[in-house]
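Intended use. Records like the one below are meant for learning the mapping from a protein sequence to its folded structure. Do not use them to infer anything beyond what is encoded.
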Amino acid sequence: MLARTAPIPLAMRRVLPHPVGMAQIDNLPPLREVIAAHGLDARKALGQNFLLDLNLTSRIARAAGDLSGSDVLEVGPGPGGLTRGLLAEGARRVLAIEKDARCLPALAEIAAAYPGRLEVIGGDALQVDPLQHLTPPIKVVANLPYNVGTELLVRWLTPPSWPPVWTTLTLMFQKEVAERIVARPGSKAYGRLALLAQWRTEARIVLTLPPGAFTPPPKIDSAVVHLTALPEPRFPASAKTLERVVAAAFNQRRKMLRAALKGLDPQIEARLERLGIAPTARAEEIDLEAFCALARDFG
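Structure written out for the chain above:
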């Protein structure tokens, strides 16, 4: 395939081989050059691990599905590799929230290359309300900083009402966190996060990345999880009651349910038997439907 020497219309852009093994998806410099020019060494305190291969960032963007009719929220864009992938893949508009002020000039260069399609907010994603800056439908796509990834996911899964403002979440986590999100009953990874995610979404791992894909390389693999919001939860239950029951069960996951849940009801053994749940079972053996039934029984 011939190298491109002039701007290419957005609809015709495809990932092309780059002479140094990276990918060229737009007319901006390779990410290694951007990082060098702006002095953007990744900082452990901010949970930063930069993904520099634009071919991989484009794959993540494509995993989110058709972006052309959606606003996209990105948290922790860093030097903007995924941001560029989202824009090149046709996102209607991207809102990027970046805590590290050192990255803002690099992101401003991307905004200039995609006029009117990228807004950058400098700040902490845990403190910023993005809804003031987004127009539905909304997708969330992010290589989340390791130190806030799970907290952000839980917030997105527990809005005041359902369905949420977002249609899909396409998020990169440490692989062990990703496996907890999609885990099934009976596995060691199965727990509160799996139940929370699977109650209201369809969740699957769509991509796994080795440490060497990042700069600096983390000590473990990473994985991208795609979550699609369901119109309504799989089984009826009060969100607060379900969370209370699940938390009690898994806070003492090595205990049998009759012991782990005794604090919720001194007569829990009789309640479990009436619902057809074995009092001697442990939390990791109980599926989502049974937990929802128990939550409904508590009212």
